[in-house]
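dude i think i finally got it to work??
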Amino acid sequence: MQLKQRINAFISLGKFLREIEIEIEIEAEAEKVLKKAEAENGWFTQENIRFALKSWGEALSEENLQQWISNYNIVPSEAAAKDVKTIAIVMAGNIPLVGFHDFLSVLVTGNKVLAKLSSNDKTLLPFLAEQLIFIEPEFKKYIEFTEGRLKDFDAVIATGSNNTARYFEYYFGKYPNIIRKNRNSVAVLTGNETEAELQKLADDIFRYFGLGCRNVSKLYIPENYDFEPFFKAMFSWKEIIHNHKYINNYDYNKAVYLMDSFPLLDNEFMLLKEDTGFSSPISVIFYEKYNSFEGITKKLKAQSENIQCLVSKAGLTNEIPFGKAQILELWDYADGVDTVDFLLKLP
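look at this
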């Protein structure tokens, strides 16, 4: 396939995803898939699945795709045909379609996907692959899903926890690889945020129930920070407590902390706990106080390997605006590792 063919196919897939909500004939087909995905994983609510589909639809615009690939020298298909690689992708399943960017990167560079899906997200990506093959039948020989042991591949992209990363390194260490570990996102507040900005921060915190690496799980706040405006803004997500899985986590974490006499801030659907950690439990946000921007800059730099996104308006290096943590651009790479560059440089 020519690069233009591959790009055009993903442009059409983006159009398909943007039209799911308005095209009745498409909606009827997709509805079964969405309900199946929700039945298989209680964290995958219809709202969150639709948000993920819409986000990828917006990302896969012609303008975005052309801007993204313009940063690379992707050689013509004829010259690259003999160098097509099979890339094993071990998918995570914490949020809907979390492995789609790896899937996209492998196919755009002219390589083959050998994907092992997470048991928590085994419906949505095959559905999109079917749509992609319908748009461009040539993709059929470039996409394979397997439930068995991975074999006959040239490189690996694997995403998991710090625990599973050790196993990945043991099994896949002899192959060219990208192995991703736990990361979390943080927000640095100054106390001068508007209500609208804090409401956007609520989206960064609560979308996908806080299960993604781009979800804000830790706040840095100045001494004597007034939490009243913060909690007022968080109420835009108060309905989250009605999800049975979320409320079970909230009740459990609250009980554990209270039994251990940890001081908590509680607004009846989220808990704030002062803690130096990054990876907070579901329904809990850690916070830490800072005295100066110099101090917080040093701390963030020292913890850079644990941080996926930095949300703030304080003028810090690499910060992103409130409300943008879950709006993924094609050129945003997990763990800061350029997947396309990795694939293009494979021996």
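DSSP finds 13 helices and twelve strands in the chain.
im so relieved honestly
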